[in-house]
Amino acid sequence: MPTDIILKNANVITMDSARPRAELIAVSDDSIFFVGGDSELERLTGRTTKVIDCAGRTVIPGFNDAHLHVFSLVRKLLSIDLSPSSVRNVEDIKEAVRKKASATPPGTWISGTDYNEFYLEGKRCPTRWDLDEAAPAHPVVLSHRSLHACVLNSPALELAGINADTPEPPGARIERDLATGEPNGILIDMLNYIRSEVMPPFSDKELAAGAALADKYFLEHGITSFQEATVSNDLSRWETVCGLKLQGSLHSRITMMAGSPYWREFKKRNLKTGSGDNLMQLGAVKIMLEVQPEQVELNRLALECHKAGFQLAFHAVAEETVAAAITALEYVNKHSSVVGRRQRIEHCGECPPALLEKIKQLGAVIVTQPPFIYYSGERYLSTVPESQLPWLYRIKSPLEKGVVVAGSSDAPVVPANPLMGIYAAVTRQAESGQVLLPEECITVEQALSLYTNNAAYVSFEEKIKGALSPGRLADIVILSDDPTQVPPEKIKDIKVEMTIIGGQVAWEA
Ligand SMILES: [Zn+2]
Q1: In the structure, what pLDDT confidence band is assigned to residue 53 with cuts at 50, 70 and 90?
Q2: Tell me: the pLDDT tens digits for 279-288?
Q3: What's the 194 CA to ligand 1 centre distance in angstroms?
Q4: How far is ligand 1, taken at its centre, from the CA of residue 67, in Å?
Q5: pTM of the prediction?
Q6: Measured in angstroms, how far is the CA atom of residue 411 from the centroid of ligand 1?
Q7: Could you tell me the domains of the chain?
Q8: Contacts 24+ apart (CB under 8 A), 356-362
């Protein structure tokens, strides 16, 4: 067997309990065929072998982010960053929009993300009139950090058909000038409507540019696989992503869920969970519970998808929704066993002991977001009711119970940096320094498993991904430091230095 690549002189954390540590990895084609000591170097090196000297650095399996949203990430990466670290006031926002407008053909939408008036001087939101000054010839939409509010300028409001005569839409609000009734551009809970119904889909050029940015973003964070969890994923989106894979625009391996409104489209094409190959496969059916369907309806949907061969992935954050997902699984289980089908609870934000017990019995898995502890811990501690706090984003308890927990970012909700997630799972420290449930802290090895073998397990790929051992795909990351050796607070500063996918060096610092 010709050896294509050897990594030598490495501190290999294999995540394979049969051989936890090693010095050398040998790769042939897209897979690992040998893991062992440096003494084997000579025997394994051929004339054409590329030898990478790791100089003692740490080598781990490539990260797998088990839940993110790639099209939203693309949108964010193509947008102007208006987060507090980039702008101080409304004038800065106007300047940023003006700059983007000067480089964008008139009439083309301009997006900005993550403004937050709380952090702006004067605590003032930008309005349509501010944006009109900056970009009178482009429709502009700025989204609030919370995604609950957005601001449109006049051309954008016109395209959306929103004017002084527009009635308040149900469940949403149009802010207005009190004297004239004229909308001031600020819309509450209308962002999804604007994005899906008013703005055109990405042009091919935008998509190509955005995919290139997302690709680099994944690779520089060592993400060799990700699982796309968007409920609006339909067959055409599946085809779009397949196209990006075929063009080589996205190097990371992708497991893409089907949105529950569209599962029949996939079934008609004979696609179900596991269809595809190790570069691009169909995952679970994503079912939202926040706009909760009636339990009876949810049960029926879950049973139909299950019987059609799909894995299920329930979006469930609050205790009631986690309970509703479990009730649906119990219903399905009465008709056709769910054990072994690895039904996913996405987020599982509040999980008291009785629900955790049922998750265990049903053989369900949890896909959690450790970085939320860091980015939102302070907010949780001040807003979550005392009675729910002990059950918030627990990780150690389910792991000790034998429930498989996978790690993810829900990007672009928070940055998709697995090392930040590992840091948060180990320390449970919020950005503010407060600690959220110290009794739920896990070890570095456990935290690594969330993003490697456990993430592979929840998409039925643990035989080919998630550990460095013979026969598995050569998805490998070289780190600047050993997360098991540095002080916990330094884990988030560790950098990815090289990302290898299928035996190819896809990215290098
Ligand atoms: Zn999500």
Answers
A1: very high
A2: 999 999 999 9
A3: 19
A4: 6
A5: 0.92
A6: 7
A7: 65-69+205-466 (3.20.20.140), 71-198 (3.10.310.70)
A8: 356/394, 356/397, 356/398, 356/401, 356/403, 357/401, 358/326, 358/330, 359/326, 359/398, 359/403, 360/398, 360/401, 360/402, 360/403, 362/326, 362/329, 362/330, 362/333, 362/338
